[in-house]
Amino acid sequence: MEYNRRxxxxxxxxxxxxxxxxxxxxxxxxxTTPISTEALSNQRLKELKxxxxxxxxxxxxxxxxxxxxLEYHTIIKWGDRINDKDTFGFNNDFTCFIPLDSxxxxxxxxxxxxxxxxxLFVSGFNAHSPQETKTIEQVDQEMYNVGGTIxxxxxxxxxxxxxxxxxxxxxxxxxxPIQLNWDTPIKGQTxxxxxxxxxxxxxKPWNTFLTCEENYNDFVGDTVYDGNxxxxxxxxxxxxxxxxxxxxxxxxxxxxxxxxTGQAQKHIALGRFAHECxxxxxxxxxxxxxxxxxxxxxxxxxxxISSQPGSLKEGxxxxxxxxxxxxxxxxxxxxxxxxxxxxxxxxxxxxAREAAKLIGATELNRPExxxxxxxxxxxxxxxxxxxxxxxxxxxxxxxxxxxxxxxxLTFTAVTYISGGEENGFSCPDNLAFDVAGNLWMxxxxxxxxxxxxxxxxxxxxxxxxxxxPRYGKDAGTVIRVASAPRDAEFTGPWFxxxxxxxxxxxxHPGEQTTDIQKPTSTWPFDTDTIPKPAVVAIQGDLIxxxxxxHKIEAV
Length: 555
Hints:
single chain, about 550 residues, mainly beta, six-stranded mixed β-sheet, five-stranded antiparallel β-sheet
């Protein structure tokens, strides 16, 4: 399949600046209309190449710091009211924005994932006190604060603000009933309770949100199997199963949410594991290709190819053999080794990790976010780290599908860039391409490892936001443009349709706090001293210059 930038499907509507549209469909950080080089005159390219970015030095300051040419304001933070009965959840991760009207990119719906909780802040439970026992009331508070939020936001005089009490404002939580998109019941159920551990996500072409369940075992534990295939329960970290006996098999899926109704479904055909994100591409015949990674050490990269237009149910799930450049089918019918170990395709999908290893998939170093380059069509995957294999700083993997066909079953895999002091970053996590095809990246060093005197992470200080310019003297250079508050990480970068705003989550500031009277962070410096995760809007002259938005005319 020829990679033709003019065949990109813009389900959000063409940006008002009238740029040429390439053909990738939807990914974790892109809703902009990227620039095609055919749309740029030599003068415009020269202007892009002459942009100068001031490198922000590493910092351990408890604040959100930005390089010259950028500024931010907070849109919404933990505990803020979105209507008369609901509040914004905790530890916001993935964000995405859909305009309500494609002709107005400044008014629409913001979806935000809520990945996990800090019990001390959310429910008052002190996990460091052996005398304390968690109550069902505390668990209910924790269950409410995960899942996701839909909130209408509008830009007014350069400031993005929530539209309070808009009828579309709503919460999806760990107690929301959700259907399974599958013909076979799972643990006797076709509808399950709640979504949790929501990390990154994506958007489907008909403007529904995809939110991905990652470390579900933290909340509900997991089912593990011994050498004789005998099942047992491995307890969770937060202990919810003591009060709610929801089967672990009901979690670890990609979840689709209709923003207009709040109705949700879990897509079983995409497999069950620690989904970081779900990145979609729509083929010319309307079939869907979905890339998703399992964010755990020594786990795998997956691709689903649908057999029916628009479906995330009918089709085949593949897993990557990056050593030999092959997509291996996780198909019970055709794989004899899967028939020997599992009873049917449903069990293969539930136990996708085990199935992937049985058919020879390549173990990777925590595959996280996945993005499709809007200019080349190559697939970029963050491999955050694997300390067990002495990979402390991670890398970004690049996959080129054979003949540029996203439904190809062979590919070439190479390392695009490696983390470490030489390249100025460590532990890549979320990725996003902007209008001009510059690559933005966040880092995810753990709070327990940052700002220690001993290496390997001391040189990098707090987690940061970086950009890798596509043009000019700095092309290919990793440049720090923002530094996160103490203990926090930046997550969920997503550009507004006009490319002028970068929506970004500030997740788990003060994560290392053990005494609520002595928090390790007080960002965002609210009326009290408790740190609060928040979503911010980053704007400024630098973003507009990087994207040449001052100069582009309709073509």
